[in-house]
Design brief:
Distance between the termini: 28 Å
Mean pLDDT: 89
Bound molecules: glutamic acid, zinc ion
Oligomer: single chain
Radius of gyration: 20 Å
Structural class: alpha/beta
Strand order of the largest sheet: 3-2-1-11-12
Number of strands: 12
């Protein structure tokens, strides 16, 4: 018999195979695994390889081996986003049909130019806030390759800022229209973006709880908005602390964070656990995972 809906827990770890796991990504992996175990739930692994240009061949299998060495075994076979493009296509078609998504022919140069003529030069990280240029034009595919953007200005559906609640950070708000603008769902090369793929897959896989690194928190309002547009449920979110390198910057593949060596799995797990406030040292992986699961059940939000 199925457990009642409110007690169902499906979590996931969703690495991009742009390189092997490092100390930072292990924290997210361990936190999501422990949270699923603490809730008596299921834990899935999804390889987020939609952006084939950034995918490093072999990194997916390396990540799966590193997880296995840490005793973090998924409860179902992993899925690869590169094999699920039909799902993303279908969601995009649904949004186009609803008038929520539109084709855009703007190059980065065009966007910079429009923003400059509006006296807006502020950018957000490296992304420019899209000024909505193509919102009310109906570009067709025969005009050449189109990117597809999601409207963030649909008054009835988007009354002001998007709010969501993080289990650690509490109530969060973002005015997606002002701070991000209509964002890309599918690039001109036909590739679904992270935002579209993650929302479609979390729903398709029945994910109820998203546990991931703090660096991704800024995407959540966009994802909550996209869920609303597609009529999908919003999971619970918990953004875990980042691991900082000795230079104070977040560890990432970009600053060449060291790949974890499966031979040192226990030491790496102990370190990841410390970041999560589970400070005890343990001398075997099964013992450590069991103890942390107990602690997570008692202490976590
Ligand atoms: N694939 C994303 C990353 O590795 C994580 C996606 C997510 O957890 O929502 O940065
Ligand atoms: Zn445009």
């Amino acid at each position: 018999m199925e457990p009642p809906a409110e007690s169902r827990y499906v979590g996931r770890f969703a690495p991009s195979p742009t390189g092997p796991l490092h100390a930072g990504s292990l924290v997210a992996a361990l936190a999501s695994w422990l949270d699923a175990r603490a809730h008596g739930g299921q834990w899935l692994v999804r390889i987020e390889d939609v952006d084939t240009a950034r995918t490093v061949p072999g990194a997916d299998h390396q990540i799966l081996q590193q997880l296995a060495a840490c005793g973090l075994h998924p409860d179902a076979p992993p899925v690869w986003q590169s094999q699920r493009s039909r799902l993303y296509q279908a969601a995009l078609q649904q949004l186009i049909g609803l008038g929520h998504a539109y084709g855009c022919t703007c190059s980065r140069k065009d966007i910079e130019h429009t923003r400059a003529t509006q006296g807006q030069t502020r950018s957000r990280h490296t992304e420019l806030v899209y000024p909505g240029t193509c919102r009310n034009t109906s570009h067709r595919n025969n005009e050449g390759p189109l990117a597809w953007r999601l409207r963030t200005d649909i008054g009835a559906l988007a009354p002001g800022p998007i709010a969501w609640t993080d289990r650690q950070l509490g109530r969060q708000h973002q005015d997606v229209e002002r701070q991000v603008g209509d964002f890309v769902l599918q690039r001109a090369d036909g590739c679904a973006t992270y935002q579209l793929a993650v929302v479609v897959d979390d729903a398709a896989q029945g994910v109820t709880h998203v546990v991931r690194g703090h660096d991704l928190a800024d995407n959540t309002a966009r994802q909550v908005w996209l869920q609303a547009c597609l009529g999908l449920p919003t999971p619970q979110y918990w953004h875990t602390p980042l691991v900082l390198g000795s230079n104070g910057e977040k560890l990432s593949k970009q600053n060449r964070a060291q790949a974890l060596d499966p031979a040192h799995a226990l030491a790496d797990l102990n370190q990841a656990a410390a970041v999560l406030g589970l400070a005890h040292q343990h001398s075997s992986i099964p013992q450590a995972l069991a103890a942390w699961t107990q602690a997570a059940r008692a202490q976590w939000p």
